[in-house]
Amino acid sequence: MKALELKNVDKSFKKRRGEVVRALDGISLSVGKGEVVGILGPNGSGKSTLVRVVSTLVFPDSGEVEVFGVDALRHSKKVQRSMNRVSVEASFFKKLSAMENLIYGAKLYGVTTGEARPRIKEILNNIGFAQKRATEPMEHLSRGMQQKIALARALLTSPVLMLLDEPTTGLDPRSKKDVQGFISRIREAHDSSILLCTHDMGEAEELCDRVGIMMDGKILALEEPEKLKARYASGTNGRVPTLEETFMAATGYSVEEASAEGE
Ligand SMILES: Nc1ncnc2c1ncn2[C@@H]1O[C@H](COP(=O)(O)OP(=O)(O)OP(=O)(O)O)[C@@H](O)[C@H]1O
Question: Which stretches are annotated as coiled coil (predicted)?
Fold first, then answer.
């Protein structure tokens, strides 16, 4: 059984002036148990819509979505419990501390305070998050630290399918490395299944078992980073292309150009 399976998923949005945007155009993909699948795409390619459909925040127009073998469209409440979405707009009670937010998050998933506390301490230790900062109000923490707490909250309910929507966008290079290191450790320690959306080539290459390139609501190719690069190797004189070059070869655009088009 797969952690996540999508078959032929379509989702369109009506814009002002009656224009229709196909945010998801026949998307099929799977994430195996313990696998990290990356979706690499510029702004507007449909990554967030994909994550929102899987997390049952948005209903697709057609297609099938299964999470650990359960139909996510029919049994949204049930599948919500087996996954966690971490996005930049992660919501916290800003006046409460990280510890309080984590305990609250655990309670939502039926984990008692007594059970949660030692696990929170262990997780915070693992990510090198000073225990004393965990009692400060969230609003005093940097964005990188808040993002780590968002990941820690998702981990509390493991084993889960984690949906990471641009987990390092907007972070300074140091925090970015920290968060990426944390994601690597999550996969080693927790055997989590992860769908990671990013527009960062290096991040996809470093963290993912397979990477898909997304453009205009379609996934153009989905395979191991090495194979993906080999597929689009022509044009670099036999040298293995970078993922940036691969993206260019697959779409005809650089990530920056494609982002400008998508907006
Ligand atoms: N609620 C909505 N109403 C109308 N259009 C939408 C809505 N949500 C997404 N779209 C459109 O669907 C397309 C895909 O958007 P989406 O946010 O999924 O892309 P993305 O790859 O996540 O981009 P970004 O990296 O900027 O978040 C865009 O053209 C966007 O404007």
Answer: none
Q: What is the CATH number of the domain that holds 235?
A: 3.40.50.300
76, 57 in Cβ contact below 8 A? Answer: no
Structure token pair of residue 182: 């944390």
The domain tally of the chain equals 1
What is the distance in angstroms between the CA of the first residue and the CA of the last residue of the chain? Answer: 37
User: Could you report the predicted ipTM of this complex, rounded to two decimals?
Assistant: 0.94
What is the residue range of 197's domain?
2-261
pLDDT of residue 186: 78
Residue with CA nearest ligand 1 atom 25: 43
Q: Is the peptide bond before 159 cis (omega within 30 degrees of 0)?
A: yes
pTM of the model: 0.84
Query: Do 218 and 258 contact (CB within 8 A), yes or no?
Result: no
What CA–CA distance (Å, rounded) separates 24 from 57?
15
pLDDT per residue as tens digits for the range 82-114: 888 887 666 889 999 999 999 998 888 788 999
Task: Please state the atom number of ligand 1 nearest to the C-alpha of residue 48.
Answer: 22
